[in-house]
Amino acid sequence: MLNNQSSDFGINWGAYSHLLEEITIPAKTTLLQEGDVSKNAYFIKKGCLRLWFNNNGKDVTFQFFFENYGVSSIESFQSGQPSLFSIESIEPCVLLVISKANMELIMQELPGYRELFQYHILQRMHHYAKLFLSRIKNNPQERYLELLADSPQIVQRVPQHYIASYLGITPVSLSRIRNKVLTDKK
């Protein structure tokens, strides 16, 4: 996505690299705290981030992002309102960081970037709709099997307690489901 000569809507990112800062962070680093206003957006060069919120003291994970994805609290970033969720690293990460002011500058100078940004918003909304419908229509085992089919990198790289939270179940239930799935495959 952020190559010097990206094919994403014909944008030449190399001309704007000076507006991005590369940072390296360890696992379990909070980039945005729920309730704070988002001032930055992130592009993952290496690692994994999760989006989560506090539900009456319970940590609820609702999305994971891996290499080559942009991440922010879009609503907070655009509106200046407090974020509804936190952004945290699961693995050590190498990220490109862009400030709101620099993002706005790129959007003014590159009409194609606004389209790219809107495209990524639509992708995220599709993910939320799919997650919402899965929680309504699928039982926990079906949600786990869907996760295995659609996003195997999550099962391979994310700690089990975050996966359980993402699926809306307890870690003990996830362990039982995983064992049953393994037994059924034999």
From TrEMBL:
Give all residue intervals belonging to the Cyclic nucleotide-binding domain: 20-124
* Top-level taxon of origin: Bacteria
SUPFAM superfamilies annotated for this entry?
cAMP-binding domain-like (SSF51206)
Extract the InterPro entries matched here.
cNMP-bd_dom, cNMP-bd_dom_sf, RmlC-like_jellyroll
Which range is the signal sequence, renumbered to this chain? none
What's the protein called, per UniProt? Crp/Fnr family transcriptional regulator
According to its UniProt entry, this protein's organism is Spirosoma foliorum
State the organism's lineage.
Bacteria, Pseudomonadati, Bacteroidota, Cytophagia, Cytophagales
